[in-house]
Design brief:
Blueprint lengths: L3 H9 L4 H8 L3 H13 L11 H8 L1 H7 L7 H8 L6 H14 L7 H15 L12 E14 L6 E11 L4 E7 L4 H15 L5 E3 L7 E4 L4 E3 L1 H9 L3 E2 L11 H15 L10 H17 L9 H9 L15 E6 L5 E4 L2 E4 L8 E6 L3 E6 L2 E7 L8 E2 L7 H8 L2 H11 L1 H13 L2 H13 L6 H14 L5 H30 L16
Parallel strand pairs: 1-4, 4-7, 10-14
Antiparallel strand pairs: 1-2, 2-3, 5-6, 8-11, 9-10, 11-12, 12-13
C-alpha cells in the first residue's frame, strides 16, 4: 500500500521527490504520480481527517474497481461531464456499461455506480480552510434580504438594501442600509466602511455585480470606471469573484447569513420612516455583533481587529474621496449631450460621437478618447435646463446668439453717439424681433463702411428725417460715397492737368530747345 499521506506531508514541507523516495521506500515514479494527482485535485494542505486510506481512495479511485475485477471508472471525467447541459448520471452509467462490455469487463450496477460517484463528489467538493493574513482583504456584498421603510407622505413601503463589508481575518464587519443599489450608494458604502475600519485593505473582493463590474470577459473583467477610480484613490486592488462562486468570498457570505439572522430578522417588525433612523438601529445591532465574544475562541471581532489587524491596514488619505459616476452619451445635432434630463454643450466637431461623462456632486466632465473636451458646473433643479459654452458653437450660431438688444447697444456705442441714438430709436419703435431684424441689416453696413462714415451718415439722417430708417441711411451712405469718389476723380484729373500744363505743347514741339 502506498503511503500517500507521508509522501504529501514531506512534499508540502518542501522536501525533494528524490529524498521522499528514499525516505518512504517508494519508487520515484510512485512519488511523482502521488504529487501530480494531488495537484490535479488542488490538494494543497492536509488535516487530521485525511488518513492514508482516505487519500488513496481520493487519488487512486480506479484501484478500488481493479482489485475486485470491475471495469474502472474515471470519476473525474464523470464529474466534469455531469456539469454539461442535459447530461445525467444515468446516461453516463449507460456509456460506462457499454464500454465495459466491449472490453470484456464487468460494469458496476447503476446503484453501485451512483453510490461510488456520491462518495467521490463528496471528497471532490471538500473545501480547505484558508487562514487570511491580517489587513489583506475586505470582502463586500449586498445582502439578499431587505428591510422596509414607510414613506410618510404616501404610506408606500420601500425596500432598504443592506450592504456588508467584512475583514476575513478578524471577522470584523460593517453594515449599512440604502434605498437602492446604484453606483453612488455602492461607492458611498465603501467609503463609510473604510472610515469605520479606520483604514483600507490591500484587496477588495466584490461580487460580479453591475455597479462594480461593467463587463465580464473570458480572461478579464472590465471594472466600472467610478469603482476603479475609488480603488486608485485608496491605493487598493479590486479582485471580483468568479461568476457564481460564493466560496471566493466565504467570510462575507457567512456574515450576510449571520446578519440576516441577527439584524434583519430582529428588525423585521420595526416601523421606520427614514433611512437614518433605520441605520441607527442597524449600528446598535452591529456594535453588539462586533463586541460579543466568540463561542469557540477567545476574544471578540472588535478585540481581534484592534489588537491584531488594524495596524496592518493602509492609512486613509487626508481628504475624503469625492463621489464620481461615469456614463456614456451621444452628442446630438445641437452639439449638446443629455445627462439626467439636463443638457450640456461640447465642441460642435464631436456631433454624433459617443463620449464618456464623469459626474461629481458639482461638476460634469466630458471625455473623448480619454481626452477632456468640455466641463460644466452641474445643473440642479428643474429638468430640461441647458448649459452652453459659446466657444462650442459654430461661428454662425454664435453670431445669432449674440444678436440681442444689449449687444447691439454696445456696438452702437463703439460707433458713436448718433448711432447709439438711432439704435435706441429702432428698439423703442419696434417689437424686439422686428427690431433685431432691422438691426441685423444695419450692422451689415459695417462690412462696407467705416465707423466714421456710419457715424457721419447717421448724424445726417437724424438731422433731415423725422422718421429715420435704415433704407434712408443706406441712400445717404451711397450718395456720400459717390460724392467722395467724384471728388477724388476731380482731384486726380486736376493734378494730371497741372503736371502736363494743360494743352500747352511746350518748347520742344516748336523746336526752340537749345542744342
Amino acid at each position: 500500500m502506498v503511503n500517500c499521506r507521508k509522501i504529501l506531508e514531506l512534499y508540502f514541507e518542501g522536501v525533494s521527490q528524490r529524498t521522499i523516495s528514499s525516505s518512504t521506500g517508494h519508487s520515484r515514479n510512485t512519488v511523482s504520480e502521488v504529487v501530480q494527482r494531488s495537484k490535479k485535485l488542488h490538494l494543497e494542505n492536509l488535516n487530521d481527517t485525511m488518513t492514508n486510506q482516505w487519500l488513496e481512495e481520493l487519488l487512486f479511485p480506479e484501484k478500488q474497481a481493479i482489485e475486485k475485477g470491475y471495469f474502472p471508472v474515471d470519476w473525474e471525467k464523470v464529474h466534469k461531464e455531469l456539469q454539461k447541459k442535459n447530461v445525467t448520471l444515468t446516461l453516463l452509467h449507460h456509456e460506462y456499461a457499454a464500454e465495459a462490455r466491449e472490453t470484456g469487463k464487468i460494469p458496476y450496477a447503476y446503484r453501485t455506480f451512483a453510490e461510488k460517484y456520491g462518495k467521490y463528489a463528496k471528497k471532490y467538493k471538500l473545501t480547505m480552510p484558508i487562514r487570511r493574513k491580517p489587513g489583506e482583504i475586505i470582502e463586500v456584498d449586498w445582502a439578499g434580504s431587505t428591510l422596509e421603510i414607510i414613506d410618510r407622505s404616501s404610506g408606500e413601503i420601500l425596500p432598504a438594501y443592506i450592504f456588508t463589508a467584512t475583514l476575513p481575518y478578524s471577522q470584523f464587519s460593517y453594515v449599512e442600509a440604502f434605498l437602492d443599489m446604484k453606483s453612488a450608494n455602492w461607492l458611498t458604502a465603501h467609503i463609510n466602511a473604510f472610515e469605520y475600519f479606520g483604514g483600507v485593505s490591500e484587496t477588495l473582493v466584490p461580487d460580479n455585480l453591475k455597479t462594480g463590474v461593467t463587463k465580464t470577459l473570458r480572461d478579464e473583467l472590465l471594472l466600472n470606471e467610478a469603482y476603479r477610480e475609488l480603488a486608485d484613490f485608496y491605493h487598493t486592488v479590486i479582485v471580483p469573484t468568479r461568476v457564481r462562486k460564493p466560496k471566493d468570498k466565504p467570510s462575507v457570505e457567512g456574515t450576510v447569513g449571520y446578519i440576516s439572522r441577527q439584524i434583519i430578522a430582529s428588525l423585521r417588525n420595526y416601523q421606520c420612516f427614514h433611512i437614518e433612523d433605520l441605520n441607527r438601529q442597524i449600528f446598535k445591532k452591529l456594535e453588539e455583533i462586533n463586541t460579543i465574544d466568540f463561542q469557540k475562541r477567545p476574544g471578540s471581532r472588535k478585540k481581534v481587529f484592534e489588537e491584531e489587524e488594524k495596524s496592518y491596514l493602509q492609512q486613509l488619505p487626508q481628504t475624503r474621496y469625492k463621489l464620481t459616476e461615469w456614463k456614456t452619451a451621444k452628442v446630438q445635432l445641437n452639439y449638446h449631450i443629455q445627462v439626467e434630463l439636463m443638457y450640456y454643450s461640447v465642441p460642435y466637431d464631436y456631433v454624433r460621437e459617443s463620449v464618456d461623462v464623469r459626474l461629481t456632486t458639482d461638476l460634469i466632465e466630458v471625455y473623448f478618447n480619454e481626452a477632456r473636451i468640455a466641463s460644466h458646473k452641474r445643473l440642479k433643479g428643474e429638468m430640461g435646463q441647458f448649459s452652453t459654452n459659446t466657444d462650442h458653437m459654430p461661428d454662425n450660431h454664435r453670431l445669432y446668439l449674440e444678436h440681442n438688444p444689449d449687444n447691439n447697444r454696445k456696438w452702437a456705442e463703439e460707433v458713436g453717439p448718433y448711432m447709439t441714438q438711432f439704435v435706441s430709436y429702432i428698439l423703442e419703435m419696434n417689437v424686439e424681433k422686428k427690431a433685431l431684424t432691422i438691426l441685423s441689416s444695419l450692422r451689415n453696413l459695417s462690412t462696407k463702411y467705416t465707423q466714421k462714415e456710419l457715424e457721419k451718415a447717421t448724424q445726417t439722417l437724424l438731422e433731415i428725417a423725422t422718421n429715420p430708417t435704415v433704407s434712408v441711411l443706406k441712400g445717404i451712405l451711397k450718395r456720400k460715397k459717390k460724392k467722395t469718389q467724384n471728388r477724388k476723380i476731380d482731384i486726380d484729373n486736376h493734378q494730371t492737368n497741372n503736371d502736363n500744363y494743360g494743352f500747352v505743347r511746350g518748347a520742344e514741339y516748336f523746336g526752340r530747345v537749345n542744342k
